[in-house]
Amino acid sequence: MHLPARASAAALNAATALVLATACSMLPDDAPDATEPYAGLTAPEVVNKALAATRAAKSVRMTVETTSPEGPVEAYVATDIRGECTVTLSMGAAGTMELVRTGGTVYARSDAAMLRSASAADVERLTGRWVKPATDDRHAKPAERYCDRETFLGPLAANSGTARKRWATVPGSGTPALTVSGETDNGKWTADIAIDGRPFLLKLHLPPGGAGHGTGHAAPVTVEFSGFDKPFTAKKPKT
After folding, report:
1. Backbone angles phi, psi at 163, to 5 degrees
2. What's the pLDDT tens digit per position in 131-190?
3. Vertex 208: Cα angle to 113 and 178 (nearest 5)
4. Cα separation of 140 and 122, whole Å?
5. Residue 191, CB half-sphere, CA atoms under 13 Å: how many?
6. Gap between the Cα atoms of 26 and 84, Å rounded
7. Cα 72 to the chain's mean position, in Å?
């Protein structure tokens, strides 16, 4: 007895779908993606492209979020490939510091809360004023480390070979991206990489200890990257 043509077509479609699903489930997580714009690239190769593009950007803005024993930490950074940089660093109860690095010289301005360990006379004298911080300043040194994008890209580069899972997403920025994840000795990292245009790194989440190089972060760190190649000038403040 012959099945109706419609039933035969339905059965064929179902069988084809089953074969495709089975084949896809057998692919490793880091198998080359057959879709644009990263056709034929493994996840580690995509990460390396993102690292190269982000390192080569003439300038970039970064929003950094983490925590410290003194509370939530937020840093807003603008930096260029020459090392010029501005940072606004908020450290919960510890207060807020602004930092400018231009011409190889660092200037910092702190609020009263950030200066609370100073003498009363120094608090009154220094609050809101631009000064050249001491070399051992416990807040200015980590703040200056934010000027170097390698502080965050370095740990990703060291673990790019662990990249495995990828899926399309639209992060909070609204820019279509590919999400890649991997492992470090301290936990999982994830990275959102732009799909449209150059493969810039849009967002990076590092596990505890993932943003080392003197930043002193024992907590997870999230960095959002934006403003690639946009004009940027760090002006020397009046001291």
Report:
1. -60, 130
2. 888 877 777 888 899 999 999 999 999 999 999 877 776 666 677 899 999 999 889 999
3. 110
4. 17
5. 30
6. 49
7. 17
| Euclidean distance between CA atoms 228 and 59, whole angstroms | 6
d(CA 31, CA 98): 45
Mean pLDDT across the chain: 80
**Which tens digits make up the pLDDT trace of 115-124?**
765 555 566 6
Q: pLDDT (tens digit, 9 = 90+) per residue, 130-139? A: 988 887 777 7
Q: Which residues contact 108 (CB under 8 A, 6 or more apart)?
A: 97, 98, 99, 100, 130, 131, 132, 133, 137, 139, 140, 143
**What is the distance between the alpha carbons of residues 85 and 145, in angstroms, rounded to a whole number?**
10
User: How far is Cα 61 from Cα 227, in angstroms, rounded to an integer?
Assistant: 5
- Tokens in use for 153? 């890209």
User: Which two structure tokens, joined as six digits, stand for 189?
Assistant: 């990292």
Of 85, 77, 89, nearest in space to 103 by CA: 85
